[in-house]
Amino acid sequence: MLALSRRPDESLVIGNDIEITVLEVKGDQVKLGIKAPKTVGIYRKELYDQIQQENKAASESIDNAVDAVKNLNDILKG
Description:
The model has no long low-confidence stretch (mean pLDDT about 90). The N and C termini lie far apart (about 55 Å). By secondary structure, the protein is an alpha+beta fold. The chain is built from one helix and three strands. It is elongated. It has one helix at about 45-75; strands at about 10-15, 20-25, 30-35. It has a three-stranded antiparallel β-sheet with strand order 1-2-3, with no helix packed on it. Strand 2 and strand 3 (about 30-35) form a beta hairpin.
């Protein structure tokens, strides 16, 4: 992990097209501004983790449904 110090109104650039600017620092909170192409998803980490968990659960649910259909097909053939 790269750790950088920035002050309000200072920025950093990721790649060629993502810019993160420190807008404000109040106590233990930092307000950031992010400029990125619309094709780049930007999520809070806790929300991103939740989305990943839900996607995994949905994938497992689909896999279980496919297995159930295969088992039913085997029963019908048998």
